Amino acid sequence: MSEQYDLDGHSRERSIQASLKHYQPAYLFVRDVGARGGATRVHCVLRKRDNLAITPVQGGYSIRVNGKEVFFFVVEKTREYLWGKHWALEYRRMYHKTPECPYGRMHIVGRPYENPDDPTLPEITESVLRSVNFGLLLEVRFKEKVCLRRTRPDKAQPGWYHWSIIPPS
């Protein structure tokens, strides 16, 4: 299980915009959800001069790179769930390289974390902003730590919290 923090629905749009304003996105990735990863719809390596915009519009999000729409991420409502409105931030942490594992080993979690800044955890090597709609996975990867602030407890799941993305300190 990856170390993933659910974004607070009350500040979701502000968090998405804060991530794009204060941090440098490195990759944009959209693929079908399904067995063996599904088909890739968008795979875009972003350079420092590239401008990524994720804008909420009626029916979903317009995703633009340098002003050109590269994808429209649909928000779909079913009876039990609003697909595409749930966003989360994943932290990817790597243990140091060893002779047995020359590329390092990814940190996998088995419980929710109350403190993403816990000094006992390995260093964050990548942050991934993600959402899933009815059939697609959207990921924006950052080659740095995107900072979070805990906003409120999740009433449905004790021990879990909602988070907001904040500027670097």
Plain-language structure description:
The protein has 169 residues and is mainly β. The protein contains 1 helix and 14 strands, in the order βαβββββββββββββ. It has one domain. Strands 1, 2, 3, 9, 10, 11, 12, 13 and 14 form a 9-stranded mixed sheet that branches.
Task: Describe, in short, the structure shown.
The protein has 169 residues and is mainly beta.
Strand residue content: over 45%
The secondary-structure element order is EHEEEEEEEEEEEEE
The rough form would be described as: globular
| Radius of gyration based on Cα positions | 16 Å
Name the quaternary structure: single chain
Write the layout of secondary structure elements.
Layout (H helix, E strand, L loop, with lengths): L2 E5 L4 H11 L2 E8 L7 E6 L6 E6 L2 E6 L2 E7 L1 E2 L4 E2 L3 E9 L9 E2 L17 E9 L3 E7 L5 E6 L7 E5 L4
Parallel strand pairs: 1-14
Antiparallel strand pairs: 1-9, 2-3, 2-12, 4-5, 5-6, 7-8, 9-10, 9-11, 11-12, 13-14
Describe this protein with a few key phrases:
single chain, 169 residues, mainly beta, three-stranded antiparallel β-sheet, 7% helix, globular
